[in-house]
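User: Structure tokens for this complex, please. No commentary.
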Amino acid sequence: QSALTQPASVSGSPGQSITISCTGTSSDVGSHNSVSWYQQHPGKAPKLMISDVSNRPSGVSNRFSGSKSGNTASLTISGLQAEDEADYYCSSDTSSSTLVVFGGGTKLTVL
Amino acid sequence: EVQLLESGGGLVQPGGSLRLSCAASGFTFSSYAMTWVRQAPGKGLEWVSGISGSGGRTYHADFVKGRFTISRDNSKNTLYLQLNSLRAEDTALYYCAKDYVGNIPDTFDVWGQGTMVTVSS
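Assistant:
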């Protein structure tokens, strides 16, 4: 069982917006701003999409945005495109002896 | 170009050992924390171990329980992960990753392609 909870799947049509949630606890998401989001296409290495809750690394489309409220972080993708179809993972620092925890991943399907 | 190239994976019997390596290029290796993340077949990402840029501080996931050791040789721009007492549940693709901004291995902006570790008799 993953430390952070994500929906197993979400879907949307091209042009629409979707949001993926990432729910943790007061020991991770709720007390740390080192929340990141990664995109992984099949057979490929993950790609950093969002760091520190809401910062977009250089080269990442501004269609991707992140936010956090309490123990839940969120990734929003606006103007869905076919190439956005992938698995998405959140991660957070944690106050436990394990430094970083990941979510279980969410499969995004673009209809 | 920033690159990470993992090696050292393979088939090993339960209880056996392996040493994974990750050769880095295209950036000042010693300035960045580094991390190992694994992914079991068809499963999600799992953080394994991290190390500061100098190598003076290491971090391990609870499930490692002293079986794995992360280290680095900054003179060789290489990251290592020594895997001991391997179990079937350690079977996974092991990625090395570079930290995005600095000395805490918690955000990963460059990833290798991974090296597969299979634990089976």
